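ok so for the tutorial part 2 we go from a plain amino acid sequence to predicted structure tokens. step 1 is just haveing the sequence, like this:
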Amino acid sequence: MTEIKIFCAECGRIEPHEILSQMRGTRVRCTACGTVRVESPKKERPPLKVKAIVSEEKASRVCSIELAPDEACAIGDHHVATCGDEYIAVEISGIERGLQRARKARARDITTLWTRKIEQVAVRVSVHDGKKTTPVLIDVPGEEPFVVGEVYKKGNKKFRLAIIRLRNGDALRNTGQKALARTIKRIFAYLL
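step 2 — the prediction. this is what the tokens look like for a chain of 192 residues:
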């Protein structure tokens, strides 16, 4: 005998029900009151393809993200965008709900998701040599950690990280503090 716990209208609460048969619907009997009824199968709604603008370093393109209609989506969430035959890991940076911007929304209410690619990112480093500041761009995987106080090398430049400014506005200044490349807005360093 197979049992499932479902709501019983006679008892007014969730009770164990014995499954009697499964044809077009599932015929069940409440073990508490003995009421027999047919439970119709719940139809699963197909996922929605939500329009997603994927921002890469120098360009943006229109892709889509599959979400369940009632799935909540918020800024900072990570998803996989489908761009033709390519799948890209992205982070949501903006949500449009009609003509308004939102920090969080259900998939069925979303008009467009604004995202940025996070699997391979370009980290901007401002390297100061005492007189001038030179911009350096480092291409790394999004999960690559950067640590304040450590020495890095790009081309013929060798520099020590002094400050890591994060996308959320925070700044890491203490030696040993670290952040993942995908969370970094800019790094300030001095030339060695």
